């Protein structure tokens, strides 16, 4: 069956988009059929695959609005086996429109129904908030992957995120499970990174992936070339870490 | 008169909170009476001043709801001359409540009216989005300070932010001016940082502050001690940069 994974954390700048783009690419590289859904009005995941703003037609907004089906909005990317539903500025308006819409929480789930027969993995990149777009991502997903930057402010927000996940599970999506937590921008020379990593492993136990993603400038350079870092520089530590993460994701299935 | 400055950028993790906390502390250090308003449900600015979550009573939520006046919710901090309006989890609900409320855009401006007689500077930390909380911050403010991380994805979002600022100015707040753009987490060893900095200076001209904030681990350690970096380690490069930034802010007044 298809696995739908939401990449979520309301803390900003923790590596959600970078994880969505590169985990998806790594899964496609081992011949999984992958769909990435850019549910963030910023549209960074769409940029990460090299789709210029001027070329973004129908996408996530139309899925939420029920105006198009997945097969009509999913577009091929430079990566074999990987399709993308882009985000456009129309999505910025969706947040406000959703608040007063019918069935507001299940719109993305309904929109992605068809994708379950077409793909092995659906990866949803969500915005830095616990708003209706993120709620829609959590309701549409079977699993949540939480990127966690090794910084103090990032640690602070985790309990708010867990409460939101619990609530979504209780009210809208009983199947929702936490696939795992991945430490990002880990810098072994920096004692803060280490102490946050220890706290996270203490709190989450084996939900924390063994792979942590090192801070690596090649990772942040890749988007300016419109490519995932796996394509931009496969040998670099960041790309290698995402390959290892993908292996763990393939091996690990939440208690179904 | 009082200067109300919103710290805004919808891109996550660019240094909004760090800039709000440390700029405010630097201004208080030169005897300006300063109020920090934490308008982000994450509540990181409140943490940055050492206010534990359990101690957060009435704050920004009550200001928005019209249930309390500034003088009732502003609380003293460890910093002389600096008061804080805290954020609590109640604020997470404000976003949805505001969408359908009367006068939804001007609620924070109304709530902060009284502060104009009590303080020299009001610094508002906003969340990583262009939602109702950020709109309220922009409508309440006279000036906008934009922290911009020297990274490609961060550069991408600037035009969306400028469009939103223009719209707020047109519809709700004709006095709103861009005070300036400050480059954050600048790493001179990294060519990406340099090329983004060049792009930003080319685009914004002298709106870009001369001071850029270097990436400095002491800055990210300070919140875990509940202190601004100016208090935690005044000599470090990050703290020194925020002192220089404050000097520039004092010297620079937008065309009134
Ligand atoms: N391992 C890494 N090493 C170096 N830079 C990284 C790494 N991961 C992400 N970055 C950079 O850090 C910044 C934040 O990452 P990213 O945009 O993926 O986070 P996000 O959580 O999606 O942000 P937002 O909350 O705005 O959606 C980006 O500029 C990205 O290129
Ligand atoms: N100059 C700096 N050097 C090193 N680390 C920094 C610097 N400025 C900020 N940081 C760290 O980077 C992370 C992001 O900064 P911060 O939380 O202030 O950004 P933000 O824009 O407020 O994030 P959000 O979008 O979630 O509100 C924090 O962990 C912070 O401690
Ligand atoms: Mg993102
Ligand atoms: Mg912040």
Oligomer: homodimer
**Helix/strand class of chain A:** alpha/beta
Distance between the termini of chain A: 11 Å
What's the overall geometry of chain A?
globular
Evaluate the radius of gyration of chain A: 17 Å
* Mean pLDDT figure of chain A: 96
Order of helices and strands of chain A: EHEHHHEEHHHEHEHHEHHHH
Number of strands of chain A: 7
- Major β-sheet of chain A, in short? 7 strands, mixed
Indicate the percent of residues in helices of chain A. 40-55%
Strands of the largest sheet of chain A, in order across it? 3-4-2-5-1-6-7
* Ligands, ions, cofactors: adenosine-5'-triphosphate, magnesium ion
Q: How many individual helices of chain A?
A: 14
Report the largest inter-chain contact.
Answer: A-B, 37 and 37 residues
- Low-confidence parts of chain A lasting 5 or more residues at pLDDT below 50? none
Indicate the proportion of strand residues of chain A: 5-15%
């Amino acid at each position: 069956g298809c696995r739908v994974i939401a990449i979520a954390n309301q803390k900003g700048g923790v590596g959600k988009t970078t994880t969505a783009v590169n985990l998806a690419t790594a899964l496609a590289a081992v011949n999984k059929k992958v769909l990435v859904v850019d549910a963030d009005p910023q549209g960074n995941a769409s940029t990460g695959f090299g789709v210029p703003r001027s070329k973004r037609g129908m996408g996530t907004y139309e899925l939420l609005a029920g105006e198009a089906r997945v097969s009509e909005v999913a577009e091929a990317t430079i990566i074999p086996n990987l399709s993308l539903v882009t985000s456009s500025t129309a999505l910025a308006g969706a947040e406000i429109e959703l608040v007063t819409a019918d069935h507001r929480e299940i719109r993305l789930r309904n929109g992605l129904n068809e994708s379950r027969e077409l793909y092995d993995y659906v990866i949803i990149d969500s915005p830095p908030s616990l708003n209706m777009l993120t709620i829609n991502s959590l309701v549409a997903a079977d699993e949540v992957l939480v990127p966690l930057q090794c910084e103090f402010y990032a640690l602070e927000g985790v309990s708010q995120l867990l409460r939101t996940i619990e609530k979504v599970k209780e009210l809208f999506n009983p199947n929702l499970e936490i696939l795992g937590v991945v430490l990002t921008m880990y810098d072994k020379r920096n004692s803060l990174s280490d102490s946050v990593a220890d706290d996270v492993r203490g709190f989450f136990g084996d939900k924390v992936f063994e792979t942590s993603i090192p801070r690596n400038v090649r990772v942040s350079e890749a988007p300016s070339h419109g490519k995932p870092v796996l394509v931009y520089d496969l040998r670099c530590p960041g790309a290698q870490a995402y390959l290892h993460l993908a292996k763990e994701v393939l091996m690990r299935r939440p208690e179904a």
